[in-house]
Write a structure and sequence with these properties.
globular; UDP N-Acetylglucosamine Acyltransferase, domain 1; nine-stranded mixed β-sheet; 21% helix; 2 domains; six-stranded mixed β-sheet; alpha/beta; Spore Coat Polysaccharide Biosynthesis Protein SpsA, Chain A
């Protein structure tokens, strides 16, 4: 932030993402396509860049090739001004071992902090869909003199076991307890069916974080995780505060879109977030030109609709050729839908081909899947469960290049 405090962005992008299989069978979770042309990592990087945090390190580990390539080729900043976004793969700087957890990932990458010497460090997750202005969170952190500030969002108590849960103090800011994925989380005072869930976005005063990482490294019983280790430690020491995401206002957002945040860690949540994009009044509108989501769409011609092809309530990427019927779907670049084919309520990644007369319903097809003429997916639930991955809510998912019977 020019003229203000210096902030280094550290994006945690090494997660395996097992709950998103088969989409993560060949790539890291932050590299998974979202919204047609984006990768999940584009959302956090866009928020940080729009918020004037222009020096960022993306820590990668699990099957990171496509993620490293995307960050390297897409996120090129002005070297004249000293700005950068750089992927940082696991380097075993502290011995012959990979990252033991997210805290250990930062500990092993402290050379980046020592080189940059920032006043503050923003540690953000890489696999959520949202818009957020980090400057507003930073302003609270600096004004209150906090050691650590964690962004919190209200979620139903029934869903809280998937998140870190924050218990705020009487002032609504000081963190009294931080529980990582508790089985029976406590509700909020006055609203017992809601909890404050951690969004996985943290701001630290640099010295506080560095000291906490070294303390954690000495603890043989630690899981060496930001949410499971560092935040509880700083909470016990009275150094952690919560930032209420409801107070964050992004330029260009509508009242309907305010406070939108989705953890797309499962096939069902990933699918539902895509359906949010295509409703008549979308809950999350990709077209906010005052707070854009950046990516590199590739060099492809505009989409074509030929031979009576039609798409309704859909997102259609460049290079697509539509000869059949598409409804309530999201199509990535290069998708081909042949004559007589129907695609309904589905998410199709790059270069998927749907043959003549084929039917695809309620499905997620990863890149290069070829649906033969006359084949059906999402028509016979029993058969689909025998052949493909089917989520709890019945969403069918095929991995990259998977054969369609």
């Amino acid at each position: 932030m020019r003229g203000g405090p210096s902030v280094l962005g550290i994006v945690l992008a090494g997660g395996e993402g097992k709950r998103l299989l088969p989409l993560t069978a060949d790539r890291a979770k932050p590299a998974v396509t979202f919204g047609g042309t984006y990768r999940l990592v584009d959302f956090v990087l866009s928020n940080l860049v729009n918020g004037d945090i222009l020096r960022m390190c993306v820590l990668t580990q699990y099957k990171s090739h496509s993620l490293d390539r995307h960050v390297s080729t897409t996120w090129r900043m002005s070297s004249l001004l000293g700005n950068y976004v750089t992927p940082v793969p696991a380097q075993q700087r502290l011995g012959p071992r990979w990252y033991l957890g997210s805290a250990d990932a930062i500990l092993q990458s402290l050379n980046l902090v020592h080189d940059e010497r920032p006043d503050y460090i923003a540690v953000f997750g890489a696999d959520h869909v949202y818009r957020m202005d980090p400057r507003q969170m930073l302003a609270q952190h600096v004004e209150n003199g906090a050691g650590a500030t964690v962004a919190g969002i209200r979620v139903p108590r029934a869903e809280a076991s998937s998140f870190g849960v924050i218990t705020p103090g009487a002032d609504g800011v000081q963190v009294e307890r931080f529980l990582e994925k508790p089985a029976d989380p406590p509700g909020l005072p006055g609203d017992p069916e809601q909890v404050f869930a951690s969004m996985g976005n943290y701001l630290f005063t640099t010295k506080v974080l560095v000291d906490a990482l070294h303390r954690d490294a000495e603890d043989e019983n630690s899981v060496h995780d930001m949410g499971g280790s560092i935040l509880p430690m700083l909470t016990e020491r009275g150094m952690a505060q919560v930032y209420d995401f409801r107070n964050n206002h992004v330029p260009g957002e509508s009242a309907r879109q305010h406070g939108y945040w989705r953890d797309v860690g499962t096939l069902d949540s990933y699918y539902d977030a895509h359906m949010d994009l295509i409703s008549p009044q979308p809950e999350f509108d990709l077209d906010n030109r005052r707070w854009p989501i950046y990516t590199h769409p590739g060099q492809l011609p505009p989409a074509r609709f030929v031979a009576g092809g039609i798409a309704t309530d859909s997102v259609v990427g460049p290079g697509c050729v539509i000869r059949g019927q598409v409804s309530r779907s999201v199509l990535s670049p290069g998708v081909v839908v042949a004559e007589g084919a129907m695609v309904q309520g589905s998410v199709l990644h790059h270069n998927v081909r749907v043959g003549r007369g084929a039917v695809v319903r309620g499905s997620i097809l990863d890149k290069n899947v070829d649906v033969p003429p006359g084949a059906t997916i999402g028509v016979n639930p029993g058969r689909d469960r025998e052949l493909y991955t089917v989520s709890k809510n019945g969403v069918i998912a095929l991995g990259k290049g998977q054969r369609v019977v």
